[in-house]
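Lay summary

Proteins are chains of building blocks that fold into shapes. Our project writes down both the chain and a compact code for its shape. Here are two examples, one after the other.
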Amino acid sequence: MNKKNTIQSGELKDQLAEITETMQREKIEFTPEMKVYFDETLARFTEGMTRGEMPVKKDLDEFVNKLKQWIKMSKEYRERYPSIEAMDSRSVELITEMKLEKSYDEMVDTLQNYGYTDKIPEKESIMGAIINLGPSMLEKIKNFNRPTILITPKGDLASKIQKLDSNKKYLNQGDTYFANPSTDTLWGPTSLKHIVTIVDGSPEMPKLLTDNDNHYLKIEEKHQYLTDEYKNQGMKMISAQEYAMLAQKSLRSYELSKNSDEIIDQNQAINLNAEHLTDLQKVPYVKWFSDDRRFHFDWDPPAAQIVHFRGRPSVQVIVT
């Protein structure tokens, strides 16, 4: 092979020294996937050189350029999101693919539209916290039908429902129905801080149970199945407070798009988180009723059966 197209060991050593010096200066560490790529590529170069086969210059240039691009991206994201604990390029790719920055902007618009005035977490701190979830969890979130950032302001559920009902978006929309008062402990505790989560915000959720189980299992058994399914993935069931915010977000989306399909849970009942209940005598759920054009926060006894009973996963990002 023409020597002009190959490199010598000194050139490889110089390039690696430059990259190492840059990483040390910028305090950047290899992510697991980049470490694998670095080790495997360097081993391939070294093995070839041991056999007297000098690496092709094009291959070295590709290797070095990829490392430099990754270092540049890491530096930019670290400056942009100072709360990042460990830069992971795959995590950055995932939040970009899921369009989570846009989701944050949509959530802020919803909060402003419904009249929330408390200071909320900045985008930079939330995105940094999302990156800190790591690629393993973010890969799971990417499997959501619609990964959606929710900001649930501090306060009780009743105050959130008051905002939902005082700013109606749908023609002849009714006031939210509650089988038990919105202040009842059935719906969960008052939130003392802002809670940021990522939920599946798809208008309609897929069924996780078989057709047979969906028809014949008691609601208590379905609740436990869904709770365990999410818990095993490091997630939880969406709470009543979170759902109130997602309801507002979906109605705001409807208002902007005039697409009624944006309104969530028109044909299904969504199980609500019940971890706060020591004795599950009432299984809480919620759905949108098209007949009276409002959300129904309801419950059934453990032995009841509801065919279209599904869940929404939630992953906590930050509490502030």
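And here is the second example, written the same way.
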Amino acid sequence: MPGSGGTVLLVSAEHEDWVQLCRVFEHSEWGLKRVHTCADAVQFLDGNTVAAVISARELPDGSWKDLLGHAPPIVYSHAADESLWAEVLNLGGADVLAKPFAAKEVLWAVAMAAGDRCQAGAVVASEGCTVS
């Protein structure tokens, strides 16, 4: 049942990222909510509980680092290199995703960030998690 696992907040000004992640989450247990800026994300997080936050590396009014005091974000970028991984994990982020998104990786990262190790294991074990 979509949304039964909680809300995943996407922080991104890019419409295409929203479209791609909607496809990933359409048959998952999580509901997806989108905001465009750090300020909108902070406002949303101050009044809501989320399972996970997925954030673009750069945002119109800041970066994923501005979210650290509110939730450990899963950061995504075309350039998901070792330096980004090290920075995100050392500063307290949850994970890093490379674009283009791989559905199985997104769902696994969200399950881990949400603390649902059983769901993460199910994602790894399944073969039906890819979205075309």
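What can we say about the second shape? Residues 6-125 form a domain with the Rossmann fold fold (CATH 3.40.50.2300).
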